[in-house]
Design goal:
There is one protein chain. The protein has 207 residues and is an alpha/beta fold. 49% of the residues lie in helices and 16% in strands. The chain is built from ten helices and seven strands. Strands 2-3-1-4-7 form a five-stranded parallel sheet, with helices on both faces. Strands 5-6 form a two-stranded antiparallel sheet. Strand 5 and strand 6 form a beta hairpin. Helix 2 packs across helix 3, helix 3 packs antiparallel against helix 4 and helix 6 crosses helix 8. The relative contact order is 0.18.
Length: 207
């Protein structure tokens, strides 16, 4: 069985950034369902073809396909290799199904209030030439690139509030679910990125 750590938190909480840093420190393999889906589609696997049909129709990929992708990927890894789930599970049924595929050691929840998430995401700007991400407040772009910066279409306040509403409805119940299992460890995601990282390391190693 694979020992696994789940990173939980709202969109924009910094899960992807922290997952990368935690992977570098702990040696755990990051498992992102988005990456698995894209790879399966690109490699034209049976699961990939099935998933592509839903994606092309603008529909959510069913849990059974996602879990099939995860199970197939886990089977390729060293059984002793630690796993770091980024952005999965999103619902309690997914969490329940995941426990049949791997052993969940702990769940790290990055807590950030909604208004802070909105400010983070709505203020993001990208340099289309380099792909570099800036922020109007927290990481201003140099004057030489300011004129060409763009805002992603889904980085508007309306879209972010909708995503947060979906998170609170579908994913936030996982906090109580994993807490009831004694697996939950929460950190304040409103701090500096380095401090969040340090707190996550402490949470992972604090028995």
């Amino acid at each position: 069985m694979h020992g696994s750590v789940i990173l939980l938190g709202p969109p924009g909480a910094g899960k992807g950034t922290q997952a990368t840093r935690l992977s570098e420190v702990s040696g755990r393999v990051i498992l992102s369902t988005g990456d698995l889906l894209r790879a399966a589609v690109a490699n034209d696997t049976e699961l990939g073809r099935a998933a592509k049909g839903f994606m092309d129709a603008g529909e959510l990929v069913p849990d059974n396909l996602i879990l099939g992708l995860i199970g197939a990927h886990l089977a390729t890894l060293d059984p002793n290799q630690g796993i770091l789930f980024d952005g999965f599970p999103r619902t309690i049924p997914q969490a329940e199904a995941l426990t049949t595929l791997c052993q969940i050691e702990m769940v790290l929840c990055i807590e950030v209030i909604d208004d802070a998430i909105v400010e983070r995401i709505v203020g993001r700007r990208m340099d289309p030439q380099t792909g570099e991400i800036y922020h109007l407040v927290h990481k201003p772009a140099p004057p030489s690139v300011t004129d060409r910066l763009i805002q992603r279409r889904d980085d508007t306040e309306e879209t972010v509030r909708t995503r947060l509403s979906t998170y609170h409805e579908q994913t936030a119940p996982l906090v109580d679910y994993f807490s009831s299992l004694g697996l939950l460890r929460c950190v304040d995601g409103g701090q500096d990125i380095d401090q969040v990282h340090a707190d996550l390391i402490t949470a992972m190693t604090d028995e």
